[in-house]
Amino acid sequence: MNDSKLMHAGTPGACAVRPGLFRSASWLRAWDQVWPCDVPERPIYSGHSSNLIQYPINLAKLLRFQSAAPKAISTPCLEGFASEYLCFNSPADFSLFLQEAESGQWDQLYLRGLLDKDFEVDLLKQYCLTRGYLLMRREDMPAYGINTANATFDDYCAGLGKSTRDRVLGGRRRLQKRGELHRRNLWPDIDHFLKILNQFHEVRWGKPCIVGESEQFIRLFLTHLQQEGGCVDLSALMLDDKCVSVMLDVELDGWVYNLQSGFSALDFGRVSLGMVHFGMQIEQSFSLSRCHYYDFMAGDGKSANYKASIANNTLSMGDYYVVRSIGLKLAYQLNDCLKRNKNITRYPE
Questions:
Q1: Most confidently modeled of 133-147, 213-227, 293-307?
Q2: Which residue among 38, 63, 157, 237 is the one 20 to 30 A from 308 at the CA level?
Q3: How many CB atoms lie within 10 A of CB 22?
Q4: Which positions fall inside the BioF2-like acetyltransferase domain (predicted)?
């Protein structure tokens, strides 16, 4: 399979667009509406800043510390709707955040989903070095996607492995023999879309996918996104008049994000409904000149890492922890030593 490299912003010759959906105005606005900072019964925000969430962490059930994180990301105290990339608008924007966070009463600053090669990590290393803080990187999280710029869908398919290409294209042909196969964008009927998505997830995973506050959030976010110039695709794959797969795709600044998907548990023989649907969504992105990247996001499938097989690009990201409490530094070092945890990088190394 071809390994086309997507250059990062901040490096010579890089594309100016980064995956900024999760720091976009529409994302932050919806977050503030569902999880506002002025709710007394939910004192999760730092007293000095509405941009910083603060929550306790316990180690070995004996030691208690305070952790902080930027709002609008998933944390142990507030799951929210899963976010992936923590991409600030500019180096100045991130530096301002660190400056504001510095005055908070925290032992640890948690930054989930930083791209390893972008400016945030470089600035974070310098920030910790000048203050004597420990910087740790945990949770290697490759995010898979497809660079759709300067290529065609046929070029992309030619670079796939034989078995993967058969699942994407051959599966489509086999499904077309069973009836009329087409896609339908259900937007703005989000009620109907979520009902189908949750039903598929109930069968496959044993629980619905988007409910409660997460449902409130996604409804508001999608509305705001379209109002602010983004595109919403509540894609339903139809076989005759029956929906067999759904995908929640959104586009902002030419970057398409696959936020969620689900498909029927019915047996269609040698057909992977998810791969067929992905293939059609990817083909659509190639056909739109404004689109340059289709993002599967991080995470694996239930039984196999299907994303790796159909991607032609990988973005490396991880969870970063700024530790300024001496007690917490020692606790982490002891804990990691006992567990022999090798999936941790410390800076300076």
A1: 213-227
A2: 237
A3: 22
A4: 163-307
Query: Are 69 and 196 part of one and the same domain?
Result: no
Considering the domain boundaries, does residue 218 fall inside one?
Answer: yes
Residue 156 is part of which domain span?
Answer: 150-291
Show which of 276, 291, 306 is a domain's final residue: 291
The C-alpha angle 104, 110, 113, rounded to 5 degrees, equals 140
Strand, coil or helix: what is 143?
strand
Amino acid symbol at 31 = W
d(CA 61, CA 132): 27
As beta bridge partners, residue 183 has: 237
Lowest mean pLDDT among 3-12, 77-86, 300-309, 324-333: 3-12
Rounded-to-integer distance, Cα 156 and Cα 286, Å: 9
Evaluate whether 233 touches 250 at the Cβ level (below 8 Å): yes
